[in-house]
Amino acid sequence: MTSRRLFLSSSAAMAQVKPNDRIRFALIGAGGMGSGDARTALRTGLTEIAAVADIYDGRRERAREEWGARLYTTRDYREVLVRKDIDAVIVGTPDHWHAQIAVDAMNAGKDVYVEKPMVQKVADGHRVIEAAKKNNRILQVGSQRVSSIIYEKARQLLAEGAIGELNLVEAWWDRNSAIGAWQYSIPPNASTQNVDWDRFLGSAPKHPFEPRRLFRWRNYQDYGTGVAGDLFVHLFSGMHFITGAKGPSRVFATGGLRYWKDGRDVPDVMLGLYDYPGFNLALRVNFVNGAGETSGFRFVGSEGVLTVGGGVTVSKVNRETAPGYTIGTFPRGVQKAFLEEYEAKYPKTLSMDPTGEQRFNAPRGYDDHFDHHRNFWSAVKSRQPVVEDALFGLRAAGPALLSNQSYFERRAIFWNAETCTVNS
C-alpha cells in the first residue's frame, strides 16, 4: 500500500508538472518487474506511459486493461524506438535482451531505465557504456537500494569512521518460497499463436517452444543470470555505494542445486568470496533456508559493526589498549616481575563489552524503489548524472556474472575493477 508520505510526495510532484511537460515513456517487457517499474514511474508524477512492447499478447492486453485501451502496443520493441513522441524506455525484459535493447534505445535518442543486471555478459557492458557516452543519454540501472536513504545513512556513518577501519563485509539474501525461487505462474493459454517465441529467443540458442522457459526464464543460463545476477548484483550495488569501492580483484563462488530440481540449470544455493582493497566480502544466497525472506549487510570494522537492513545499526566496542598476558607457565618470581612491569605500563585496561548502539530507521512506508525512479526521471529532465549509471552498473554486474563463471568452472576469476575486464 502507498504510505501517506509517498502519496503526498507524488501528488505534489504531479501538481508541479503540467501534463505536456511529463516524460513520455515506453515499457519494453511487461512482466512482473517491468510492470512494477512502470507503475512506480507513473507514481512519481513526472511521466506518462505511451507504449508497451512485449512478445506475449496476454501481457499487452493486460497493459491496455491497466493503462487504457488506446495505449500503443507491439511485439517488436523497435517499433517503439522509432516513435518521436517517446522520450525514454524502461527495459524489463529477460537479461539476455538488456544490452541490445538499451544500446538500440540510446542510439535512437531515448534515455533508458534498465533492470539489473545491466547485462548478461561482461563484454556487452562496454557496448552500453559507449552508447550512453556517444549519444549523451541518461541510463540508470534498476538496483534501487543505491537511492535509499538507509544506504545513504550507512555510507555517511562509514565515511565518518563510525566503526573504525573496515576489514570485512558480510551480505546475504535468503528466500524460502516457490515464488522467491522463480516458480512464476505460467498462463494456461500460452501458445505459438500468442507468443513470439523466436523474438524471445533472440541471440539465445534455438529451442522448441516451451512456455516454462519464457515465464520462468531466470531458471536458465540461456536467458538469465541465476541467483548471482538476480540477487548478488543488488548486494554488490549496495555495498559499492556504501563503501565507494569499484569492485573486487578476485572472485570465487561455490554452491549447488539443493532443492529446486525442476529442470533449472542454475544453483539455488550460492556463496561467494571476494578480495577488495583493504577488506573482504562474503555473499550468500539460499533458496532453501527454512525461514522467511531476509537480506542485509554486516560491515565489520576495528571499532564496531554497522548492520544494514530495514534500518542502520551501529554497535560499538572499545578495543583493549593493553595486550593481555599468558604467564601461567612461568615461575612465580618471573610472573611477579612481569606483572609489576605490565601494570606499571598498562595501569588501566578497557572492557571489550559493547559501549552502546545507535539505530536509524527509515520513515514508515518508505519506498526506495520510488526514490530510485524519481532520481532517474528527474535526471531525464535536468540532464544531471544519475546515481547508478552504466559504469556503476557494469561494476556491479561484472563480479556477479563472474561468480557464475567461477561456480561453473570451479576456479577463481581475477577482475580489474578499474577497466571492468577479466584478467587472464
Proportion of residues in β-strands: 15-25%
CATH class of the largest domain: Alpha Beta
CATH topology of the largest domain: Dihydrodipicolinate Reductase, domain 2
Discrete helix count: 13
Fourth CATH level, the homologous superfamily of the largest domain: Dihydrodipicolinate Reductase, domain 2
Which percent range fits the helix content?
25-40%
Order of helices and strands: HEHEHEHEHEHEHEHHHEEEEEEHEHHEE
Shape: elongated
**Structural class by SSE content:** alpha/beta
Question: What is the end-to-end distance?
Answer: 49 Å
- Count every beta strand, where a strand is a DSSP E run of 2 or more residues: 16
Instruction: Please compute the radius of gyration using only Cα atoms.
Output: 25 Å
Q: Strand order of the main beta sheet, please?
A: 14-13-12-11-7-10-9-8-15-16
- Tell me, rounded to a whole number, the average pLDDT: 93
Number of separate domains: 2
| Low-confidence sequence ranges | 1-15
CATH-scheme architecture of the largest domain: 2-Layer Sandwich
Report on the biggest sheet. Answer: 10 strands, mixed
Brief descriptors of the model:
424 residues, alpha/beta, Rossmann fold, Dihydrodipicolinate Reductase, domain 2, 2 domains, ten-stranded mixed β-sheet, elongated, disordered N terminus
Brief summary:
This protein has helices spanning 4-16, 32-43, 57-67, 77-81, 98-107, 122-135, 149-159, 197-201, 211-215, 226-243, 332-345, 368-382, 390-409; strands spanning 23-28, 47-53, 72-74, 88-91, 111-114, 139-141, 166-174, 250-256, 269-276, 279-286, 294-301, 304-308, 311-317, 354-361, 413-416, 421-423.
